[in-house]
Amino acid sequence: MQLAVFNSVDRADVIGVLRPCLDIQRWVEQIADARPFNGMDSLLGFARETAEPFTPAEVAAALAHHPRIGERPQAQTTEAAMSRSEQAGVDPGDDGVAAALAEGNRSYEEKFGRVFLIRAAGRSATEILASLQERLAHTPEEEDNIVAGQLREIALLRLANVISEEEVSA
Description:
UraD-like
């Protein structure tokens, strides 16, 4: 969607575009209500500011929609398509890495009570696995901050991919 269209369409339509980027109601509504934006920098800057901080309840709600790293969601939703694209660097055919990710995911979920979340876009399976193993040593408090940061990165990346770079003239 072009930014000019994003700025002018009905609020419900904008919310529908934003929700797959990050399913946090407050974030989606604040961005929708702050329109119009005069460029991608102002949109992304506002989205970043609005995403800090997330409450624990918001993080939990958003994580409910994220698949495990290494598992490809099969749903035909926009969010599932985004996840499949973002995890392109994780080759499910690499049995060694796939098994290590599955084991790491189980360990992470046992320790922290939620799925392991990382901005997978642009990262190889080996990099993701190394980060997973490193993060298993964190405290819950350290991990809370990291997860919120990863959610912000994912949301901004998705938003930038959904809205065109075309600038709106003043």
